[in-house]
Amino acid sequence: MIFNKQTAKKTAELLLQIHAIKLQPSQPFTWASGWKSPIYCDNRIVLSYPPIRNYVRETMAKHIEQHYGKPDVIAGVATGAIGIGVLVAEYLGLPFVYVRPEAKGHGRQNQIEGYIEKGQNVVVVEDLISTGNSSLNAVKALQEAGVNVKGMIAIFSYGFGVAINNFKEANVTLHTLSNYECLLDQALDTKYITTKEQEVLAAWNASPSEWNAL
To answer: Which residues are annotated binding-site positions?
Structure first.
């Protein structure tokens, strides 16, 4: 769920502006999963642009307080959301931890890095939602540590049906600054893409695992 259309439009505009999101319907990217994709999203690029970084930090922080209340701790999902998670925690004056995909195989074998106590309220910060599996894996680790996960906030979501179902089944609330639908609207409005390219991009989103570039 996006917070509001104005935030979604502005966020999409900024991500396109700095090429954190690239749209290439005629020259698709290949994801690690093997999927062919007309879009590539790397929101870590946000960290290299202070004005945009500050916009994302402040917008996330304000929406966290508005929708989840002020938590005890902010948790970032490694590795993509560590940077923005730290910025959000700093803005709110809160402790920060981050969650690895799995526990380390050496040392203290931590999966959660940083100090956290049972019973604390936590909001999870993520940079990008695709299927939601890695994000929900972090939520599970936090819940197993005995904390109360209030919900998750992410910069951008592809809006896949599988992700919506995964979050629903896990009973985890997700809010995002922007999503794929708003991105396409913004890209078309600014003539970043044509109507024909929008149709191709929409077709991919409807069935990404089976999509072939036209």
So the answer is: 100, 104, 106, 126-134
